[in-house]
Write a structure and sequence with these properties.
By secondary structure, this protein is an alpha+beta fold. It contains 3 helices and 3 strands; from the N terminus they run E-H-H-E-E-H.
Protein backbone atom coordinates (compact mmCIF):
# COMPACT_ATOMS: atom_id res chain seq x y z
CA UNK A 1 0.00 0.00 0.00
CA UNK A 2 1.32 3.41 -0.99
CA UNK A 3 0.25 6.78 0.38
CA UNK A 4 0.45 9.82 -1.88
CA UNK A 5 -0.73 13.43 -1.57
CA UNK A 6 -3.58 14.83 -3.64
CA UNK A 7 -1.19 17.23 -5.39
CA UNK A 8 1.23 14.46 -6.35
CA UNK A 9 -1.64 12.16 -7.37
CA UNK A 10 -2.97 14.89 -9.67
CA UNK A 11 0.44 15.27 -11.31
CA UNK A 12 1.02 11.50 -11.67
CA UNK A 13 -2.52 10.25 -12.20
CA UNK A 14 -1.93 8.17 -15.35
CA UNK A 15 1.08 6.46 -13.79
CA UNK A 16 -0.87 5.76 -10.60
CA UNK A 17 -3.71 4.19 -12.59
CA UNK A 18 -1.18 1.93 -14.31
CA UNK A 19 0.21 0.90 -10.93
CA UNK A 20 -3.29 0.21 -9.61
CA UNK A 21 -4.02 -1.95 -12.66
CA UNK A 22 -1.13 -4.20 -11.65
CA UNK A 23 -2.68 -4.72 -8.21
CA UNK A 24 -1.16 -1.96 -6.10
CA UNK A 25 -3.41 -0.14 -3.64
CA UNK A 26 -2.76 3.60 -3.47
CA UNK A 27 -4.14 5.78 -0.69
CA UNK A 28 -4.55 9.46 -1.57
CA UNK A 29 -4.08 11.84 1.36
CA UNK A 30 -4.95 15.47 2.04
CA UNK A 31 -2.98 17.16 4.83
CA UNK A 32 -1.68 13.71 5.82
CA UNK A 33 -5.15 12.15 6.23
CA UNK A 34 -6.47 9.42 3.89
CA UNK A 35 -9.30 10.70 1.68
CA UNK A 36 -9.45 8.29 -1.27
CA UNK A 37 -8.21 4.95 -2.51
CA UNK A 38 -7.07 3.89 -5.96
CA UNK A 39 -7.03 0.13 -6.49
CA UNK A 40 -7.87 -2.37 -9.22
CA UNK A 41 -11.52 -3.10 -9.90
CA UNK A 42 -12.34 -6.60 -8.67
CA UNK A 43 -12.93 -9.08 -11.45
CA UNK A 44 -16.27 -10.84 -11.61
CA UNK A 45 -16.03 -14.42 -10.46
CA UNK A 46 -18.37 -16.68 -12.40
CA UNK A 47 -20.36 -19.14 -10.35
CA UNK A 48 -21.22 -22.64 -11.52
CA UNK A 49 -24.69 -23.13 -12.95
CA UNK A 50 -27.00 -24.30 -10.22
CA UNK A 51 -25.29 -22.52 -7.33
CA UNK A 52 -28.27 -20.17 -6.98
CA UNK A 53 -30.71 -23.01 -6.31
CA UNK A 54 -32.52 -22.21 -3.09
CA UNK A 55 -31.24 -18.64 -3.07
CA UNK A 56 -33.58 -17.19 -5.69
CA UNK A 57 -37.25 -16.79 -4.87
CA UNK A 58 -40.33 -15.04 -6.18
CA UNK A 59 -41.60 -12.20 -4.02
CA UNK A 60 -45.16 -12.53 -2.72
CA UNK A 61 -46.10 -9.13 -4.18
CA UNK A 62 -44.69 -9.71 -7.68
CA UNK A 63 -47.08 -8.58 -10.40
CA UNK A 64 -46.86 -11.42 -12.91
CA UNK A 65 -49.49 -13.80 -14.22
CA UNK A 66 -49.87 -16.84 -11.97
CA UNK A 67 -48.98 -19.29 -14.77
CA UNK A 68 -45.55 -17.64 -15.18
CA UNK A 69 -44.90 -17.73 -11.44
CA UNK A 70 -46.02 -21.37 -11.27
CA UNK A 71 -43.71 -22.29 -14.16
CA UNK A 72 -40.78 -20.57 -12.46
CA UNK A 73 -41.40 -22.27 -9.13
CA UNK A 74 -41.78 -25.65 -10.83
CA UNK A 75 -38.51 -25.29 -12.75
CA UNK A 76 -36.19 -25.54 -9.71
CA UNK A 77 -36.50 -27.59 -6.54
CA UNK A 78 -36.64 -25.45 -3.41
CA UNK A 79 -35.63 -26.85 -0.04
Amino acid sequence: MTEISVARAKAEFAALVSRAETGERIIVTRHGKPVACLEPVPTAVPFPYGDMVGKVFVSDDLSLPEDIIDAFEASAPFP
